[in-house]
Design goal:
Layout: E1 3-9, E2 13-20, E3 27-30, H1 34-47, E4 50-57, H2 64-82, E5 91-98, E6 101-108, E7 114-118, E8 125-126, E9 129-130, H3 133-145, E10 148-155, H4 159-178
Parallel strand pairs: 3-4, 7-10
Antiparallel strand pairs: 1-2, 2-4, 5-6, 6-10, 8-9
Length: 195
């Protein structure tokens, strides 16, 4: 089974993550940041990756370290669960509409992390959540998951919809990329023979 557990403890946060790439999108995410929990639920549900996240952070400062460190731990868990990446589809993309918003996400599970982020959110906050933390999460996730990740806002004006569509678009692309390719289930998806 392609599962992983990661714990990350720093002076700022305590994070534990469990994932199952071959799940059904069952989630139990409790980070102490309500809107972020909602986004992690979307990531799990639409990627079909079972996910349990627990986080305690320095909320008296702000939510930055908690969100960033969850991204790091989830990226590490993804990399661990993928192992040598034999048989995966590797590449995927998604154009995801949500009301006024359309987000395009394209990714490569290449082990060469890179984030292209063309997503602006028109408000600085969604409730009490700092909207700049959406990018911070994906930066940590891509870097530590070894993902080349491109995310573009095609259009949209509602910050909640833009953020949520971003998590859902990445989730749908991730779902396809981690799936086993039935035509090449026994091979690493690279002419190099390794990823």
């Amino acid at each position: 089974m392609r599962k992983a557990s990661v714990s990350r403890v720093t002076a700022e946060t305590e994070i534990s993550v469990e994932i199952n790439l071959d799940g059904t999108g069952v989630y139990d995410n409790q980070t102490g940041v309500g809107f972020f929990d909602h986004m992690l639920d979307q990531l799990s549900r639409h990627s079909l990756i079972d996910m349990t996240v627990r986080a305690k952070g320095d909320y008296h400062i702000d939510d930055h370290h908690t969100v960033e460190d969850v991204g790091i731990a989830l990226g590490q868990a993804l990399s661990q669960a993928l192992g040598d990446k034999k048989g995966i589809r590797r590449y995927a993309s998604c154009h995801l509409p949500m009301d006024d918003t359309q987000i395009r996400a394209a990714l490569d599970l290449s082990a060469r992390p890179y984030l292209i982020w063309n997503v602006t959110l028109p408000t600085p906050k969604i409730g009490t959540f700092d909207t700049e933390l959406v990018r911070e999460f994906f930066q940590g996730f891509a870097t530590h998951g070894g993902i080349t990740l491109h995310v573009d806002r095609i259009h949209g004006f509602n910050s909640h919809h833009i953020a949520e569509a971003t998590f859902k678009a990445v989730a749908r692309a991730l779902r396809e990329a981690v799936e086993t390719d039935p035509r090449k289930a026994d091979a690493i998806p690279s002419t190099k023979g390794a990823l």
